[in-house]
Amino acid sequence: MGNSYAGQLRTTRFEEVLHNSIEASLRSNTIVPRPVFSQLYLETEQPLAPDGRTEIDDEEDEDGSESNSPPIPYQMKPPPEGCCTTDGFCQAGKDLRLSSLASDALDVPPGFMLVGVKSPSIPDNLLVCAVDRRFLPDERGFNALLGFSGNCMGCGEKGFRYFTEFSNHINLKLSTQPKKQKHLRYHLYRNNQGILVKGAPICWRGNDVRLRQMRSSLAEGHPASDEQPPNLSLTHPSHAPGSHAGSHAEPHVVDVARTLINGNHAVPSTAHPPVQQSGSGRPSATGPHANAGPPKKRHKGWSPESSNNSLPESTLKSPPSSLALSTLSVPSVITNGAKSETVTLQSSSQGCSTPLSPPELSVIVPDQLLHTCKLQPVIFKGHGPLPQLTGNVNEVLVSSLLQSCYLSSQTLPRVYQHYGPSPIQPLSTEMQILLTVYYLVQLGPEQVPLIEDLEQILMRSWRESHLSEIRQFQQAQTPGAQGRHFSRETPSALPGLPQHLSLPPPSQQPLTPSQLPWLAQLAASSCGEGVVVFGEEVRSLAQGLQRTFSRLMEGRLENTNYVVVIVVSPVQETQSCVVVTGKHQCRALAESMFSPSEGLKEISHQLSTGVAQELIHYCNSLGQDGDMDSLLDSSSVDRNEASPLSSTHDSAEERSLKNTQSPQNMQSPKDSSTQCAKEAMSLKEAASSPKDSCLEYCVEWREVRPIQLAVARKLLSHVCAIADSSTQNLDLGSFDRISFLILVPPSEVAFHQTVLHLWSSGVLRELGSAEHECVSQREAERYVVKMDQRARARIDSLIQEAHSNSYTLYILVHDHAHWDISSSSCSSPDSGLGLVDQLLNSRPVKDATNILILHVTSFPFTLQTQCTRISPYNEIHWPSAFSNDVDLYHERTRYFGVSELLESTRSGSNLPLMRYDSSFESMASALEERFPKLHSAVIRTIVLIHHYCVALMAASGKISSSHNLHKHTSVETMEIVQSLLTAAHQCPTHHGHMVLLRIPSLALAVWAHRRLSRVRRQLGLEESFEIILGNPSQALIIGRIFTDQIKTWLKIQDPDWVPHTYLELEALPCILILSGAEPLGESLPRSLKYCDLRVISCSYLHRTTLEQELGLAAYLVKAESRPPHNPGPGSDLIESDAEKLSSTDNEEEEGQDNGDSPLPPSQPPPPCTDSGVVDPLPSQSTASPNVQKGTSDSVHSPSKSQTQPQTQPSSQPFPYPRAAPQHRYQPQLQSHLQAQSTSQLQSQPQNQIQSFSQVNSQPYTQTLTQQQPLSQMQIPSKSTSSDSSSPRASSPHLSCSWARGVSRPPSVLLPRVLYDIITASDSSGLPRFSSFLPHMSVAWVSSFRPLLSKMMTCTEQSLYYRQWTVPRSYHMDSSNRTEGRSDNFHPRRLLLSGPPQVGKTGAYLHFLGILSRMLIRLMEVDIYDEEDINCNVQAEEVQFHPPNTPWPNTEVMKAMPFDYTIHDAKYDDISTVYCPGFKPSAEGNPVRQEDVYLRRRTSRIKLSKYAAYNTYHHCEQCHQYLGFNPRYQVYESTLHAFTFTHLLLGEDIQLYFIIPKSKEHYFSFSQPGGQLESMRLPLTSEWSPDCIKSPIFTPTTGRHEHGLFNLYHAMDGASHLHILVVKEYEMAVYKKYWPNHIMLVLPTVFNGAGIGAAHFLIKELSYHNLELERSRRLEGGSPAGDVWPFIILADDSCVMWNAVDLNGRSVPVEHAVSLKHVLQHMEACPDIAHYGLCGIRKWSSRGFPGNKQWEPFCRGHLHDFLLLNVDRSQNVQYDQNRFTCHDIDFTLRLHSAGLLVFKFNSFSVMKKQIAIGGYRTFIIKTKMTDVPTSVGPSQYICAPDSKHLFLATPAQLLLEKYLQHTSQKLFPLSTKNYTHPVLSVDCYFNLGPEVTVCFVSSRPHSVNISTTGLLFSGLLLCFADAFVTSGFLKKFTFLKGATLCVISADRSSLRQTVGRLELEEEWRFRLSDEFQTANAKEDRPLFFLTGKHI
User: Fold this and answer.
1) pLDDT digits over 869-919, tens only?
2) Which residue of 308, 763, 1228, 1972 is 20 to 30 Å from 1053, comparing CA positions?
């Protein structure tokens, strides 16, 4: 089938490649050709198509071979007859040319895009077609599906599935096979005029590969094609002009213009030579124009699945800076700090730790090896035993890391070993060695091998060789078994190899041992002498090592970094080892073999023994410029002179401060210098000078941010989840308070910092820990403990307290939890480690049910292993502040952390915040070679401090030759020092910023502090800035002058106060030297401006270590929006530009200082980053074009790669980082007061210009002479402008450097090697260091683990580490190994993780506060606490009963007047009931009833032990009451029907009782399990101390969870009958929540009824039941009248009850009592049967208003809790139709019937506020929709027979609501007219709060008020019955114009009522005065008629 390679052996392919390589070398005279190994095995990365083939496979199948054989001729299919064959037209005759269709409207289907087709017949035009975008590649040449799908844009024909067919249709007329890759050439798009134009070329990956792969541009040089590829992928590495021809070629980005500033960019520079050049060039085979793939047409010799990626998502686009990792400087081998993994040979006996070789094969290490070679070689054991080393073994190091890597990559997981019929094989030894050689070849001259990179290379090779088997295995697994992202074994880009290179398929064509040496040497030949392979010429490892040592001594390995020894023998296994011979690599590897503690000891030893003195003396010498000490001594002689800071170094910021008044105040350099001298006074002088105060200063560490509140609530919800779980590991309901102890690392600053946060948070005051308010931080120190030996006693005492106080919940907060994770069994007592394990993991703490442990850390990976004690469900991760670019928390600050720092390195136009100092690196590297025995940390620290000292001397101006000192320091250091010195003098109160100098070694830190202090003293700068030594074991020591200054700023009056934390150093100009092996959680102030990490260790590359150091620079950036611009004096062009910029979309950036960008004014700012954090690199510039031109011409870039500088005058010495501005303009400074200042346009000093003009590793570029006068750099005065200007524009406080700094994160300076590793990212965009081992105390489970993904959430990362890491033996969780994994988790242990410095301390402190409040709230409820209304009832007080009378006297009660006035505050918005003696107060119109829940006053009251509870209450005592009785099955209950007849209902009513088995004894049945007959009632004469006689009925709706139906505690154990009255549709849900309660289910017709219907049915059913019980008693021989006739009607929100006692002064005092006590007292009342209704008072905290004397009883309205006599009230019913005010209506009718109604004032009921459900919830909706709509009261009624919007609401409710809201229109004469009320006959309706209602009863012998002489303003007749007659109505007198309202059920009865009552005689009616409720006819509307009195 045309497969020209079918059946050929692999050697054919090899010969072809070899031939091509030789041919390329012959044609080129400048480069070394690509090695054959690369062409054979490291193929270009291509995505696999669904059938396993790559795109380029397909392309090459069609296009023929890459060899010189001619292409296969192609014969086009002849066109059909009659078709158009004109070029540029389709076969249908339609024009396809772009020139013709450019302005036509084209129909492009969704998913398609317009593409330009290149036709060979019309080369000057394109053909337009539409192609499915899935078959086109992305901008990197990936993700294009094989095949084709296109449409013709001429004739519109669609559905072309083959490009061959489509090319025929559009008349391409090809002579070769049609290929979409060849002819689909350009994207098409419409420009701003809507014209279709040619766009970017389509990036077909592999285009022109075969044309160019043989050319000399393969390895270096420019691409041969004139057309650059349009994508952002890698192209041929090239050198800039002037670079060395033999340089190591590195790839560069084609399209992206990058500015490489001072070596501080993520893109490796291609324009400079490496520091150490090898003899011959080392071209990189990293370009995409490498060999395009395997042999054409798949055959046996090549796996069809050998390409890199099989899934499109594995080839995600990466940012341009994510270059191939082969160009990154990987600094060192990752070691775990374990001595067992590395062996330092100090004697010949120690050299025998490996299996011994024969004696004749021992290797003698030559003497004077270190002295001769200046290095200590490192031998990596590989395969086979290492021979014995003898001789000078002290100067050789041996490491087993490589051997461990090999073994790990060959140890297959058990699941793979036994899977499938053919087991998956590991990598062969030969393949491991070959891949190792190639990895070493790829490393640069300054790079150090990283074992994890090699491990990933081996794993990827293995995955690719078994891709199909792995897929089959994964498909057989459960998808969710391993997590969402990391369950796939998808190969991704290798860390040590270029991303686009493939790996060999060893399983398909095994590599033989005989091929190995030759291929390894071939691979090594590409890098010259960089890697040397001893293979065929050596017969043993000993021989190879001996040869290596010999060459080292002879100097023949001067340019060799690695020697690989390979021993191949037919009789034994292949053996290998690697000898590291590069100076830089040997030093890095040797230092990495120390554990961290051993490294610090070695540094201290070198300092103490004086080994470093030679280096110190060497650095002190400044060559021709003299000696530092002599220069300092000379400066100290005349330091009392007022020597200003040199004008050369005077920052533009300080100069602009002096020139803020007007442009005419421009000074000459001499004047400026003099002025600066006057300004440069000490802080002491400044403190005494009458300066303005700085209004910008604001300390904000005390505030709690919204995101901290959210995290605190998340913590609380997790605690509640533990409590709610079925495991019952935490019973929150049993705790009444909390106590806590915060454990912090043994750092004095961290300790006091936590104390400061705790004291200022107010948590202690909330917890009530002290009787008085906290007045000092001493009280807070009891709650914080350092984890040292003294912590044991504190925790032991807490454990004892926990055992004795079971009602207190103790929280142990383990802050900085990743610090001490050592096992107590493996730690020495004096080390201070292992305490956490010993204390927190002890048995007493684990078993205590009232101790909760909260681990808090920024690096949770250390606690997330297979043996972790923390459940994944108990992890709380800090949330993202943004979601889809939406700010979720609206904070004034935004977090700027590690990810944002990394992002700043990728924003190409600005100087990144994180960078390295190439000058410093160059000097340190040179000295490392000069002093090979010194530790690199010693060298780097001494060099760095030397730079600082020189910079101080140069910037101070005290040295006469200071202009010559700049070359002895680095530009970065000079910037730092200048900024430090000048910043404090630009603020009236001398605020400055902090410079953090991180020196891990305490010994070095002490030396640095001493050295810097001495230089500062000799320069006379003791009062300019402070130098602080941050020793974790010591408290802060601050000079008195600086302490006084801080006290002034913080307004502290305490004379003994001293700062204890770094946070309290806010705005203090200082250098903080932070020591310690690792940071211990110390927070840094927001005045931190520079974070100098240039001397941190590069040896221990773990994720925790790196992120911990970078976390020091984490920052909260101010994110306030920018106030509007106000043009000030002198602002012209620049002001308008600033206004243009202020209107951009980037709102987040406008609150920052945006004047530091090199972008022109017209360029918009860059968008916000994806993470939502404010872009730290503002890109707004307000420099006008003429200003830019003026300075760009005067300053030239020192290298071609640098962008032209932009003109930006500055008002600060080192403003916000950006690309390369020489002059900076500060447009606007924001503050809380929105004040701005006018700044003069000034130039930058020359040294600042150079700081931005350095290229990667070039030292000082002396393009600009530093002696150039300042006047030559100044801008003409006409260019000056002001950008601001509020009326306070000239105020001096606007120049405060600190105020500007809080809007910018600090700059971070890193070592070059760390910078390269940190800024590297893998193919998914994940930072490279994120894939490192999490911590030295954990280990990977297997090398066969998947890679971390950038898309993983924190939870998924946790699951990843839990699956793939195990604790080492010295990890505290190593003892937590058990078989049952779920049992490992401690149930009361939580983990809070969040980025460094983000605010975790404030979050967990707030959590402690809200947890305490929640526990209190669990025991508190909101009680309605309302004062009685309408209290002036009686004009004079009459005492009817003695104050302490327990029960009322019947005769006295009859004589007591009835109080018609309503006093319950819940009825303050209803109509007042007329009472003759009442005088209303002149109050305004109250709020309507709908708003009652929003305005009713409540109080928080702690629950008493007699409270009623809802369903959320659980306690052991309640279990049986709630149905958890072992005698009965839960939910076992029976449904019983009960039928009775009532005249008002007109038919039999059938009710249902749900009776649990445990409650059946309260009922009588016809037979057991038979028909329900009645509810048993006791006799009046019966009495029991443990029994309540009255049945309790509680009508309820919508409160199945929140109703207070648990009366167990309220009844105090008394037996009682409690019945819930529920609606039918709610029966099931109430039964579910209350299975042991009796339910009375209302009939279906009452589903929409109100509370009146429920009370009506309860009362009538109770009376019917009373009759049945009397009959039953008569049958049993008891007297009928002796049955107890009372029932209790209780609201479902009654929570507690109180009784009133009189104290000695007869003052009533309330106390809580049980409901049992209240009811038994009421039931025991003498003559209780004579009363119709009894009630109790509603509780109020305001006592008993209205009565001067205590009256124990009163007569009036009763609510909420009633004792009803159903026998005496037989003839008075509740109105079943009522929704509102039914109790008032019933009480009035009951009183008018002559029944006694009274209230026990000695008891009160507390009502809980329940905002859910209840009978007061009314929903008024239309018939058209079920959705509640906004319907006004006027729409509640309509004219009869009119077309109106009908409402789906009961007619009675509409009527009641209408009368309530429209009474002012209906009864206009009654409004606010108490003396003329509305007469309401036989009913009470709420007519609104402004209308008074006078109730009268028409019944004979009824009790009514006297209406003689009373004129009524209206008459209300509702359903007037026969008792209402015309004669009855004529007794009353009405005002003229009074309103009549007659209500009836229908229109006929309405007319009958009018006629029967002869109303037309005195009332005038109109046809338009008849109305009905807005109900449909089937809903039975109510009708009413209004009229006017004649």
Assistant:
1) 999 999 999 998 887 778 888 888 888 999 888 888 887 657 788 999 999
2) 763
